[in-house]
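Late entry, pyridoxal-5'-phosphate complex.
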Amino acid sequence: MIYLNGDFLRIEEARISVLDRGFIFGDGVYEVIPVYSRKPFRLAEHLRRLQHSLDGIRLQNPHSDSEWTYLLEQIVALNEGEDQYIYLHITRGVARRDHAFPQGVAPTVFIMSNPLLTPPPGLLHTGVVAISAADNRWLRCDIKAISLLPNVLLRQMAIDEGALETVLFRDGFMTEGAASNIFVVRNGILLAPPKNHLMLPGITYDVVLELAQASGIPHEVRAITEHEVRTAEELLLTSSTKEIMPITRLDNQPVGEGKPGKMFALFYQLYQSYKQTTMRG
Ligand code: PLP
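Prediction complete; structure with ligand written out below:
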């Protein structure tokens, strides 16, 4: 079951107009929220980022946090699986095609939830393969915009080469992955690029840094050069649906020893324990 503009429907029954500005212009924002044991994970943080994205495109939030919480609880209850991921999507609504914002138009609100399949253990033992590319996206990557064509093309580039993700560089520095954030380990220190307009402020990224802080693991948030990525001891990829994964090959070269390293093992455990605590809490 999905939610569309006030109704809970079967997805086959859901209809939107071809004049929806999401369809015509990609004029909208979205969120992906993991759900563990039927509880949305880091919900307050996801709703805060949603507000940031809406502010970034100058679209009024159609719901209060408590209304969102209610709608998301309903969607989770109506769908199968203890672990799910919610996809929430808001567009500027339906209007005659014109670039200018329409007046007095209600936004389109769509929510669906699907079973969450976390990465298979085999992949966590071998690590994943990545390629790299120039970051050719716009300069507001901090907005979780539904217009994802560059990300789609960059991710497909990886798939075409038998890899899982594309690590992006802009002006000699690493930004993030096509649909993930990237951490770098050098000299036993966890390095994270600073949050700015060139990357999505990942919710998983924040969890990893909080865990590093709480466990006294040496870490630094600073700009990371392409050279530092290519000579890293470890590379870690994070996202809400992939959680935390080791990248063991980049552009056909091994990363460090070419197998998941100690920092990955540590953070994987920390992340799983943190999930358990939030499910109980
Ligand atoms: N960066 C991009 C471009 C993404 O699309 C995503 C998530 O899909 C992330 C980073 C990771 O963000 P989060 O940890 O909030 O899922």
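The chain has a mean pLDDT of 97. Will revisit in the morning.
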